[in-house]
Amino acid sequence: MSIKRQHNPYISSIRKEQDELVLQYLPAVRAMAYRLRERLPTSIDVDDLISIGTEEMIKLSRRYDRKQNDSFWGYGKKRVYGSMLDYLRSLDVMSRANRRLVKLVNKEIEKYLAVYEEEPSDEYISKVSGEDIKKIREARDGTKIISVMPINEQITIYSGEDTPQLVEKEQLLEIIKSVLLGFKQREQMIIQLYYFEELNLKEISDILGISESRISQIHKKLLAKIRDQIGSYNG
Predict the structure, then answer these.
(1) Which terminus of the chain is more exposed, N or C, with fewer CB under 10 A?
(2) Total number of domains in the chain
(3) What digits encode the pLDDT tens for the residues 22-61?
(4) Does residue 24 form part of some domain?
């Protein structure tokens, strides 16, 4: 004889409140996914980002305690965004096998930008590198994905070394601050808008009246100088 589970009004009330939280902030998750998607290659489906973010928000709603934090979105925003980045990290384009080509493509882009102040075509990179153009396109997609990651991860990928093992987090922040002091005010603003305001290259271009290629060049210059500083720090 099966025993029918009794209805618990208290548990039902808690679960209803948790579900309402998720529904209340679902538009914020969607907005976050669309904002992130604007900075990514077209191969990334925004619905996948929304799904990942929603799943994380459901998990967070089950652990949320109003007594410790009176803002659910304040409590969960970074974690939801982090779940989307975790999804991007899991993609094949971010695998170590592809990072060699990503680094090669990035190097060719830097060289071309320094001379022509615009990014080269896929055909050009394919020609000078001797790599298949399809692989070049995949690598450039990988570069776009890498560019939304925290700076320390970007340094790790492009240097081939584990940044956290080279410098402590506080030391890395000091290095970044030191490097930025050597940048012009407008260049500093570009980094601020890209990393902290999370604007895409087109939006920054519209605000500052600078080409997207020039903004990309400044971003790559920052990463290169940080890599150099880390190298001299540990030399």
Answers:
(1) N
(2) 3
(3) 788 899 999 999 999 999 999 899 999 999 999 999 988 8
(4) yes
